[in-house]
From TrEMBL:
Record GO biological process: auxin biosynthetic process
SUPFAM superfamilies referenced in this protein's UniProt entry, alphabetically: FAD/NAD(P)-binding domain (SSF51905)
Organism of origin: Solanum verrucosum
Taxonomy, superkingdom: Eukaryota
EC number: 1.-.-.-
Record has Flavoprotein as a keyword: yes
Protein name per Swiss-Prot or TrEMBL: Flavin-containing monooxygenase
């Protein structure tokens, strides 16, 4: 994943800002821009951004949920929610099943492949109509 991040940052000129909480977002009809105010979690200072487009990408994983799967309690391998995933180093050469093909699932599956894990992914329904 490091190579992908570096590619995004340097080639596409995207610089992520971490540890920010959106406090306010409003579209201004006159300027045709979004006014977004965020609180910096490191300094507690307010930051203000003006942008032509606003993409809300909080995802469903904001509230981690692991369904009650029969047999999961007696499973001897690692089973955890994507919010607990750090990287695929410890899975090198191991069989890993990723459940779900949302952004997190796909990124984790890619990272596991890069780390040379034997990766499979299962999906609830077709992604092609």
């Amino acid at each position: 994943m490091k190579n992908i991040f570096l590619h995004t940052k340097h080639t596409l000129n995207i610089t992520p800002f971490y540890n920010r909480n959106v406090e306010f977002a409003k579209f201004d009809e006159f300027s045709k821009k979004w006014n977004v105010k965020v609180r910096n979690g490191n300094s507690d200072e307010m930051e203000e951004y003006f942008c032509k487009f606003l993409v809300v990408a909080t995802g469903e994983a904001s509230y981690p949920f692991i369904p009650d799967v029969p047999g999961l309690a007696s499973f001897t391998g690692d089973a955890f929610h994507s919010t607990q995933y750090i990287n695929g180093e410890k899975f090198k050469g191991k069989n890993v099943l990723v459940v779900g093909c949302g952004n997190s699932g796909m990124e984790i599956a890619l990272d596991l492949l890069i780390m040379v894990a034997n990766t499979s992914i299962i999906v609830r329904s077709s992604v092609i109509n």
